[in-house]
Amino acid sequence: KFRVLIVGRANAGKTSILKRVCETTESPKIYRVRDGSREEIHLDPTVERGNHNIEDELVFTNYDGYVFHDSCGFEAGNERELQVVQDFVRKKAKAPLLKERLHTIWFVMLICWICNLNYGFQVLHSNGE
Question: Alpha helices, DSSP H only, in the chain?
């Protein structure tokens, strides 16, 4: 299994991107791993939308060779969210089995943020002209 952590701003559409890449409109199966056991859990989408546990494993039935981990998302000034991601990456880096390790990190940015950043660079380099 290939393990992927997807991170980015809250409500950036991380799960929607995963659905698109995995060519599905279905929600992934979510597994909670505790004390060596793995059980499927069901979240109430109206109550728990966007409330992710980074340790949960997301698996799409048509892409079962991949295990995804979804971060809660980053909010400006919230160091706790960053710490959770850093701790998770460190933990996965030390996992004894290759299948338990993190294989890639996918950072998602909103296009409007990139446009604002690009505009800022243009203003910065225009020397006030």
Answer: 14-21, 45-48, 79-93, 111-125
d(CA 115, CA 109): 11
Whether 18 contacts 60, CB under 8 Å: yes
For the whole model, what pTM was predicted?
0.77
Tokens of 10: 């809250």
pLDDT digits 0-9 by tens, 28-73: 999 998 887 889 998 765 544 556 789 999 999 999 899 999 987 7
DSSP 43: -
Pairing state of beta strands 57-59 and 29-34? antiparallel
Q: 54: Cβ–Cβ under 8 A, 6 or more apart, which residues?
A: 5, 69, 70, 71, 72, 84, 85, 88
Task: Give the tokens for residue 29.
Answer: 């199966």
